[in-house]
Design a protein that fits this description.
The complex is a heterodimer. By secondary structure, chain A is mainly alpha-helical. Helix content of chain A is about 70%, strand content about 0%. Chain A starts with a helix and ends in an 8-residue tail after the last helix. The chains are: A mainly alpha, B mainly alpha.
Chain lengths: ~90, ~200
């Protein structure tokens, strides 16, 4: 009936909440509400996720390399397909 | 008329190597593939080579594209295979992973924390984790890292990530659990926490 900390931490870290049914969600949320250690763990994982999003999901990052690479690949296309297989 | 990567007729045009269709695919996904390769831990030059080679394979095998999955799924699948091919020689994803033991030791037999996570000031934490993030990711195996990149950077659905990495939903859960715990443990070991 009650989930223990190990189970909750496992569910939180494996994206289980996204697919869990309403009762399961409630059990996880209730545990997080009651348990400061699991809450702390959950907060840290959220920060880790949002840092990854900030670091990798920036369209301006590496813009010059991407534009150049795109020109090169499109150029190869015009020439009738890849000449040089890596 | 402008072509979109979601057009139902796109698969057919890709199979016939219609230059306009191939161009749309390149323009739509090249940046995403390059950033995913960087996120997977490749240096900029290697990421360029792998992205280029992914499109070379894509164009070469265009006739085989059946359109059963989205063209993006197909492209990321090619990219992932290329990255893991070269890494496989270095390290193979194992059934058991040392991070499982590290996490296991944090709990007692009834599943309660014996070594709880150290409390942090979340605001301070978020500014400090940026400093160590890349360093902490270095030791993460390719498949775990790729699962994390596709989830966080590309925001792909679980179904799509499973197809790209050729894993089940349960496996994907394990990969994400391991990479997030690796990062968390590594950051905690680096002292990213409230003094």
């Amino acid at each position: 009936m009650m989930l223990n900390c190990k189970e909750v931490s496992r569910k939180v870290a494996s994206d289980h909440l996204a697919t869990a049914g309403p009762w399961e969600r409630f059990r996880i949320r209730f545990h997080l509400f009651m348990c400061r250690h699991c809450r702390c763990y959950d907060e840290q994982l959220r920060e880790i996720d949002s840092t990854a999003q900030e670091l990798w999901n920036d369209p301006s990052q590496d813009r010059a390399s991407i534009d150049r690479l795109q020109r090169e690949v499109l150029e190869t296309l015009k020439e009738g397909g890849p000449q040089d297989q890596a | 008329m402008a072509i979109s990567v979601d057009d139902p007729g796109l698969a057919e045009r890709i199979r016939s190597k219609d230059p306009a269709a191939l161009q749309v695919v390149v323009e739509t996904y090249l940046g995403q593939l390059f950033r995913a390769a960087r996120g997977a831990g490749l240096a900029p030059e290697r990421a360029e080579e792998v992205t280029q080679s992914t499109f070379a394979t894509f164009i070469e095998k265009a006739e085989q594209f059946e359109g059963r999955s989205h063209v993006r799924t197909w492209l990321f699948g090619i990219l992932y295979n290329k990255i893991s091919e070269e890494r496989r020689r270095v390290s193979r994803e194992r059934e058991m992973d040392e991070i499982d033991d590290v996490v296991e030791e944090r709990f007692d037999s009834s599943g309660k924390w014996v070594k709880p996570p150290r409390p942090v000031d979340v605001q301070l934490y978020s500014s400090e984790i940026r400093l160590f993030f890349e360093e902490c990711l270095e030791k993460v195996p390719t498949q775990q890292r790729m699962a994390f990149v596709l989830r966080e950077a590309e925001d792909l659905s679980s179904d799509e990530i499973c197809k790209i990495l050729d894993v089940t939903h349960t496996n994907l859960g394990v990969l994400l659990y391991r990479v997030r715990n690796r990062l968390r443990e590594c950051l905690e070991a680096r002292g990213v926490e409230k003094p």
